[in-house]
Amino acid sequence: MTRYITTSWDDGHPCDRRLADLLGKYNLKGTFYIPQQNPGHRVMNETEIAELGHSFEIGGHTLGHRNLRRLSASEAHAEINGSFQWLRSLLQKDPVSFCPPYGAYSKRSLAEIYAAGFRVVRTVELLSPVQKTGVLPTTIQMFDHPPLTLFKHLLKRGRIRNLRLWINSRFAADTCRLVDHYLEFIATHGGCLHLWGHSWEIEDHRYWARLEDIFSAISTLPGFTYVENGQLAKTS
Ligand SMILES: [Zn+2]
Q1: The pLDDT of residue 235 is above 70
Q2: From ligand 1's centre to the CA of 65, what distance in Å?
Q3: What separation in Å is there between the alpha carbon of 40 and the centre of ligand 1?
Q4: What are phi and psi of 33, to 5 degrees?
Q5: Pair 175, 210: CB distance under 8 Å
Q6: How many angstroms is it from 187 CA to the middle of ligand 1?
Q7: Which residue has the higher pLDDT, 132 or 94?
Q8: CA of 147 to the centre of ligand 1 (A)
Q9: Local structure of 129: helix, strand or coil
Q10: Local confidence band at 236 (pLDDT 50, 70, 90 cut-offs)
Q11: Integer angstrom CA distances of residue 152 from 146, 163, 198, 205, 233
Q12: CA of 10 to the centre of ligand 1 (A)
């Protein structure tokens, strides 16, 4: 039975450096999905991104933080390929993982992402304890979603087993309670706990102390393997 813990952090905001320090303090692995620019939030400069890349995996997040479903085929191609080439030259190695902004992608963009050279696609599916390779769902977002939002999300995705598992938590919405519930399930049944979020959101909502409690709770657990998103790439 395999039990994984992975984390991912989107958008490349300068607060990612604080996040990286906290991950380092608890020996946790993480993947940072970074666009070249983002109309909504500040992005670290290239020197800072390359520096972060010495300790953590950096994944693609398009060039301009674009919604792939709203782009023409040629625009999507430019955003995805441009992201791969930009990270390759910045990091001096091929990036492995890609996260479509807003969780928005089509079958066509998925094919384009793989054709560009990426081998992992992280979605924004929540409350999944499943260990998958290739297209990775997530388990818990570092954000206080109301229980009704989580319920609707699970209904929309139509994953009955995930819905049942969440109902067993008595409709938990607090991130600490969710972490306890899914850790316990994965410890028994195997799977992957995937915690993700945005450092700008953690800063805005003052989640830092709670995030440190969670990092402490999920670190150095016997029987768990700590991986970057890219280590869950398909091997064949
Ligand atoms: Zn984003």
Answers
A1: no
A2: 6
A3: 9
A4: -95, 115
A5: yes
A6: 30
A7: 94
A8: 23
A9: coil
A10: very low
A11: 10, 10, 22, 23, 29
A12: 5
Q: Which helix or strand (DSSP H or E) is residue 191 part of?
A: strand 191-197
Distance 56 CA to ligand 1 centre (A): 18
pTM assigned to the model? 0.97
**Spans of all domains in the chain:** 3-232
* CA 18 to centroid of ligand 1, rounded, Å: 18
| Residue 101 CA to ligand 1 centre (angstroms) | 5
| Alpha carbon of 61 to ligand 1 centroid (Å) | 7
Give the 3-state secondary structure of residue 190.
Answer: coil
Q: What number is the average pLDDT over the span 109-117?
A: 97
AA identity, residue 75: E
d(Cα 166, Cα 72) in Å, to the nearest integer?
A: 37
Q: How far is the CA of 97 from the centre of ligand 1 (A)?
A: 14
Q: How many CA atoms lie within 13 A of 124 on its CB side?
A: 17
Q: Kindly give the distance from the C-alpha atom of residue 99 to the centroid of ligand 1, in angstroms, as a whole number.
A: 8
Task: Flag whether pLDDT at 108 surpasses 50.
Answer: yes
Determine the distance separating the centroid of ligand 1 and the alpha carbon of 105, expressed in angstroms: 13
197 with 31: CB under 8 angstroms?
Answer: no
Of the listed ranges 131-140, 155-164, 194-203, the one predicted with least confidence? 131-140
Q: Which CATH architecture has domain 3-232?
A: Alpha-Beta Barrel (3.20)
Q: Residue 16 and residue 200: Cα distance in Å, rounded? A: 8
